[in-house]
């Protein structure tokens, strides 16, 4: 097993939080349920731009492998990384049970970039940047890991009063959709900030789209509303 040589860009509290939830990654009615619900939207956003069949894909911050398995099922040769040991073990076990070939590594994006520079056609980093101390460092590492012309798909949470009300007060404290303490408002990221970091890393940021949630029907959909959850595509110059 490859292990990170350093884990500087990680919050120990965040790792402990997700380690405690590791055994519930594949419980669609549990605390990870919202990720299962939005996963088809995340995959459809990617497939709107390209076919994944035969591509080399990397899922950064894979958790229990929800998106990683979707990439593999779509035909991508998938590698997935996370620093939460318990989550990686759950991901490995579940993929094996499903008969899916996904290479799971317990390593940071920064360390993997030292080993596999310019090896991936597509990289996904979703619902992860708001959980690390230095999100731009992750984007820089992803840039190194992409082949020339490679595509980076990101998703995170906007930082504004509406996002605080819905993603923290509503989702964590009122509706109980996710465990309390999952998110910290100060770590939310405005689309302009995310696009700026991409440009500073030499990427061309592209389309941005929102994911909106209807609490009455408990359904998610892609929309033009990026005020809370949103997705972004960025391209490394060929």
UniProtKB/TrEMBL annotation:
The keyword Methyltransferase applies. One of its GO terms (biological process) is methylation. Pfam families: Methyltransf_11. InterPro entries: Methyltransf_11 (IPR013216), SAM-dependent_MTases_sf (IPR029063), UbiG_MeTrfase (IPR010233). Keywords: Methyltransferase, S-adenosyl-L-methionine, Transferase, Ubiquinone, Ubiquinone biosynthesis. Its EC number is 2.1.1.222, 2.1.1.64. S-adenosyl-L-methionine binds at residues 42, 61, 82, 126. The keyword Nucleotidyltransferase does not apply. It catalyses: a 3-(all-trans-polyprenyl)benzene-1,2-diol + S-adenosyl-L-methionine = a 2-methoxy-6-(all-trans-polyprenyl)phenol + S-adenosyl-L-homocysteine + H(+); a 3-demethylubiquinol + S-adenosyl-L-methionine = a ubiquinol + S-adenosyl-L-homocysteine + H(+). Residues 58-154 form the Methyltransferase type domain. Pathway: Cofactor biosynthesis; ubiquinone biosynthesis. O-methyltransferase that catalyzes the 2 O-methylation steps in the ubiquinone biosynthetic pathway. Belongs to the methyltransferase superfamily. UbiG/COQ3 family. This is Ubiquinone biosynthesis O-methyltransferase. The lineage of its organism: Bacteria, Pseudomonadati, Pseudomonadota, Gammaproteobacteria, Chromatiales.
